[in-house]
């Protein structure tokens, strides 16, 4: 005899199943790049554009991240920016490759508790485009609600932006969701990526 399932429990199970169906096509849409070398990912990166999220809500300009080698093959990420009032903002996180054979698929976490970085509470970050000389790259999440364009310089040419935008479009992203990040030595105010590329 099977235990009775209440209406609420049945609805939760159905909702979970439905959400799984909606999530799967997005997850399958992202194509990780091949030939990506984690060692060449290290160093300073400037945020050129991003789909606004928690970090972007706290930062007004000059967002950059320093990637350094950390414990057990992880990458330490120190992100700093300036808030609207000009005060500095700092965020620390860790990233690690989910599979050694595919280093372009990373798990990133900002949850640090009891001296441990808790990767199960993190999110996937998939490198979907990069310059062979590691001058720029685009990373994204399978949900299509997170994405960043990073560059080794505070500005990026329109030619490079168009190349990245083509990949983002192929992967199913809305280019208007990406907002350019103001950078000293780069663009001076935010604008939607789709508007800049017209």
Describe the fold and architecture.
The chain is α+β, with helices and mostly antiparallel strands and 198 residues long. 23% of the residues lie in helices and 35% in strands. It has four helices and eleven strands. It has helices at residues 7-29, 54-58, 158-170, 193-196; strands at residues 43-50, 61-69, 75-82, 88-99, 102-109, 112-113, 116-117, 123-130, 136-140, 147-151, 179-180. The strands form two sheets. An eight-stranded antiparallel barrel has the order 1-2-3-4-5-8-9-10. A two-stranded antiparallel sheet has the order 6-7. A hairpin with a 2-residue loop joins strand 4 and strand 5. The longest helix is centred in the first third of the chain and has 23 residues, at 7-29. The N and C termini lie far apart (64 Å). The model is unreliable at 8-28 (pLDDT under 50).
Question: Keywords for this structure?
Answer:
single chain; 198 residues; alpha+beta; 4 helices; 11 strands
């Amino acid at each position: 005899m099977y235990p009775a399932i209440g209406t609420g429990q049945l609805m939760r199970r159905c909702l979970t199943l439905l959400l799984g169906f909606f999530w799967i096509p997005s997850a399958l849409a992202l194509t990780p790049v091949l030939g990506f070398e984690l060692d060449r990912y290290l160093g300073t990166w400037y945020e050129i554009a991003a789909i606004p999220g928690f970090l972007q809500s706290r930062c007004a300009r000059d967002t950059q991240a320093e990637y350094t080698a950390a414990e057990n093959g992880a990458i330490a990420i120190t992100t700093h920016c300036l808030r609207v009032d000009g005060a500095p903002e700092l965020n620390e996180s860790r990233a690690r490759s989910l599979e050694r054979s595919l280093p372009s698929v990373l798990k990133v976490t900002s949850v640090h508790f009891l001296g441990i970085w808790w990767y199960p509470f993190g999110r996937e970050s998939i490198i979907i485009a990069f310059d062979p000389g590691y001058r720029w790259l685009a990373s994204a999440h399978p949900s299509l609600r997170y994405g960043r364009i990073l560059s080794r310089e505070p500005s990026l040419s329109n030619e490079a932006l168009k190349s990245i935008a083509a990949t983002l479009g192929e992967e199913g992203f809305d280019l208007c969701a990406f907002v350019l990040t103001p950078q000293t030595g780069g663009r001076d105010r935010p604008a939607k990526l789709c508007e800049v590329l017209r």
